[in-house]
Amino acid sequence: MKQIIAGTVMATALLAASPSSWTALDGHAYAAAEKNTAASHYIVNVNGKLMTIRSLHRSGTVLLAGSDMAKLFSADYRYDQKHQYYEIRRTSPNVRIVLQTGKKAALVNGKSVSLSVVPQRFGQELYVDAKQIAALLGGQWKAEAGVAIVSTSGSFHPFRETWQVNGSTATIHGLVLGQTSFYSVNDVAVAFGATVHVDKKTSMVKVEKGNRTILFHPFSYVLNAGGKKISLPTAPFIQNGVPYINLSALVYALGGEIEKEDRFIATSGFIKGTSINPQWIDQNTLLISRPDEASSLLLDIRSRTAIRSINEMDLTLSPDGKKAAYVDENGHLFIIDLSSNVVKQIGDDDEVKTDFVWSNDGRSLYCIYGSNNEAIAVVSLETGSINKLIDDKVKYKTDLRLSPDGTKLLYTVANEGKTNYTDDQKTDVDSIDTSGTDPQLFLVDLSSANKQPTPLTSSPDNKVNSAFLSNSEIVYVSAIDSETARPSLKRTRNGNEQTLLADQNIIDAVVVKNRIYVAIETNGIYTIRIFDPSTSSWTTMGSTKNEITSIAPSPYDNQIAVTIATENGEKISILRNGRWIDMTK
């Protein structure tokens, strides 16, 4: 605060040489007791930049130096000694003003214009009426609260904008000076629940919210927020009693953050840190994982704020979005009610359980079971009992999926390589034969009595992102270990295979509501496309230069939650109607 006041004192000292009030800068104010000629300087705000300009006080009238006025407007200034006139010329807009000492008329683009105040010469300089010259040069000059405000491009342009403040609509008014926008401090304060006070004597502006106090002054580029100095890109000003300032700086000083493209203000700032694995609870709520804190958040996408934090991370959401399942470090299964936050332990089995899949009725959970992922089991959430459906001892099962009608399970198995030893004791490895270890898809009919796994594929390629497209159709991404060959998206039905998308750098593929969503990278551009099986057509939803790492389409509408890599970890964004909207930072 001391530094801001010091800046005010310095600015006031510049004005002390003049006996007139420092609001008297429009060429029509009169000094209280001025009879002799006196020269001084004033500070002016030109499109948000503070500049000084020489002033002249003669016979009670305040005039400004013509050459300084020309400089403010990026105009040329010269004196024609032969004809004894001064010329101010500006190219955009095209204006030529010819002035003479003691003449109450000027030539403006060849036409005579009456002047409200006669230009006066002092030394080698011509002093003019700033307000009228500014208007003739295509701008506007107005003085208030100790500073003259100047727009060099047209008059002050008032505007009003609609912003989202924590998801609620707010109107913020502003003024444009030149090409620079300034926003009403009063309107921003209302959005934050803050109060504003302008000191009539010093023009100091005070904004208070709780224990937070913000101070700034029209003579300074520095804003003081609770003792912390924040540099302002443009100088604030006061018009008609309302202070105006750079919006981003004020929002930051109040503890908030801003997204200009979305016209969104988060009064408490955005959620920061690595955020992954978005799951749709409902149309307006995401469940996200927070690896840095080993926790999860319920995120309101309208306000972009956390509804609740959960001290567990790898949660699997139920089909109705009301519950989630997880296992603790001891292998015990728990179900959390997301509305009440009540946690219930299911049984006391401590075997390893992964790849949870909820049954359609929400009464049981399928999982891959065992320390070597060798079995598939179903857990009753009512009794806690565990029934092994597949116990063929084949290790490393992954990517468990349930068909839309709940009658089939799909999973992937990659067989172990054969290890060859140099000795009978098998202590020295000679080589490992990986032939025949390529991952394959298996299908289990839950309605059958024996529930024998049926192999669906045998091709020597990697198979990832497998999913049911319908009860009888399955899609997956096929990739081979090659620097030249890129992945393909394939669909299989009753042993017949079809390539839907060939030779593309597929980042992720997901099936939601019988449509296939894929994220593809091409020459550094990431694009999300949708395949509609009913029309066999592709639709592009949006593209970005940001690195997409995964996608999670909403089952409720056309929104897509996306994880994007940043320098500080992954963040969550939403693709909505072709627009990318950051949910976290």
UniProtKB/TrEMBL annotation:
Residues of the signal peptide: 1-23
Coiled-coil residue spans: none
Domain of life assignment: Bacteria
Positions of the Copper amine oxidase-like N-terminal domain: 51-143, 165-261
Keywords from the UniProt entry: Signal
InterPro entries: 6-blade_b-propeller_TolB-like (IPR011042), Cu_amine_oxidase-like_N (IPR012854), Mao_N_sf (IPR036582), WD40/YVTN_repeat-like_dom_sf (IPR015943)
Record protein name field: Copper amine oxidase-like N-terminal domain-containing protein
Source species of the chain: Geobacillus icigianus
Phylogenetic placement of the source organism: Bacteria, Bacillati, Bacillota, Bacilli, Bacillales
